[in-house]
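queue> pop job 88
queue> type: inverse folding (structure -> sequence)
queue> payload:
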């Protein structure tokens, strides 16, 4: 390191330009009067006394009187320890900056845009572990394996876990092992096209990242009931409804559990039109005050606005409009809607078919 580089390093360590100039010159001289030191460096004579006092207060030099003010450098041990501690601190700061850049803390904002997939994945894993109602997930087999412990926790908490598997760019999905899904998922479907990473949890949290072959790499984190609904519809229409089921934990006999009113209507409408008596258990919220409510009763009417006449098989998109159930609970009749219901008395979070007769 040459003299100029040493002065620069000292300035980076907290010395002013004049202090660094005077200290380096004094190291070379050993000891000198104030005026001699000013002549030997770029510090003006009018400033040299202030500079020496500042250097002495920092422990770099000591001054003494010998006809005039003189100075000499102190034992550099304390200076070296200070510089080394600063170096360690800067090294730790560099490591911390790298860590925070790679895995920034995620604040609970309504909408956050992040730049690393790891941030999206870690947030999804956190949400899934705490899920109690429903998890909807679009992942590759490798991502599914990494999230399997978290999904198992959600499944054991009683959440419905729906997984849409898709391949990496240029790969194919072969040899689906159903045993990997037991005790972990409620239903699994396979999409043959590369797909973004999507996780929707308990209707309030959503995590999204483009697939690895996308030109733009970023992530979206949502912590909002209404915004999450947008991702929910994307998942249902593009990643779920039209793809083949490769595994389901649901049996054809009651109790049959639904997390979406439209899926319930797809199955219940033909039975209802054929005169079947369907007893349901509705778990949800009162729409006027958001208080939890449980309703058990007979299905007495199904209303939907998308088609004018009942069909034997309804697609999910045909039920995109208002969908409403009427449930006779014996002492009272309730109207029941789906996610975001405002016209009905109850917003259904889960619908369980208790019996069909």
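queue> result:
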């Amino acid at each position: 390191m040459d003299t100029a580089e040493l002065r620069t390093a000292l300035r980076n360590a907290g010395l002013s330009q004049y202090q660094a100039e005077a200290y380096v010159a004094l190291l070379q001289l050993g000891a000198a009067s104030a005026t001699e030191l000013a002549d030997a460096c770029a510090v003006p004579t009018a400033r040299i006394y202030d500079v020496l006092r500042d250097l002495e207060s920092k422990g770099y030099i000591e001054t003494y009187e010998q006809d005039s003010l003189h100075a000499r450098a102190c034992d550099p041990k304390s200076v070296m320890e200070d510089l080394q501690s600063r170096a360690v601190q800067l090294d730790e700061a560099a490591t911390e900056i790298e860590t925070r850049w790679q895995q920034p803390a995620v604040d609970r904002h309504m909408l956050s845009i992040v730049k690393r997939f790891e941030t999206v994945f870690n947030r999804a894993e956190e949400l899934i572990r705490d899920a109690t109602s429903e998890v909807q997930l679009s992942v590759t087999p490798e991502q599914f394996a990494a999230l399997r412990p978290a999904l198992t926790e959600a499944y054991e908490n009683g959440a419905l876990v729906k997984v849409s598997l898709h391949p990496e760019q240029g790969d194919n999905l072969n040899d689906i092992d159903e045993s990997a899904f037991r005790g972990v998922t409620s239903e699994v479907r396979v999409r043959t096209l590369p797909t973004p990473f999507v996780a929707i949890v308990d209707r309030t949290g959503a995590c999204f990242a483009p697939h690895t072959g996308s030109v733009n790499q970023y992530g979206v984190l949502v912590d909002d009931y209404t915004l999450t609904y947008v991702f929910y519809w994307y998942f249902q229409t593009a990643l779920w409804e039209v793809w083949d089921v490769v595994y389901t934990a649901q049996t054809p006999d009651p109790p049959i559990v639904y997390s979406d009113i439209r899926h319930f209507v797809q199955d219940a409408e033909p039975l209802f039109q054929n005169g079947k008596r369907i007893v349901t258990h509705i778990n949800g919220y009162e729409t006027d005050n958001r208080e939890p409510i449980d309703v058990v009763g007979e299905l007495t009417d199904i209303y939907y606005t998308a088609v004018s006449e009942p069909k034997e098989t309804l697609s999910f998109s045909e039920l995109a409009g208002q969908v409403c159930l009427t449930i006779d609970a014996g002492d009272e009749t309730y109207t029941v809607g789906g996610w975001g219901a405002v016209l009905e008395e109850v917003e259904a979070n889960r619908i369980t078919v208790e019996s069909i007769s």
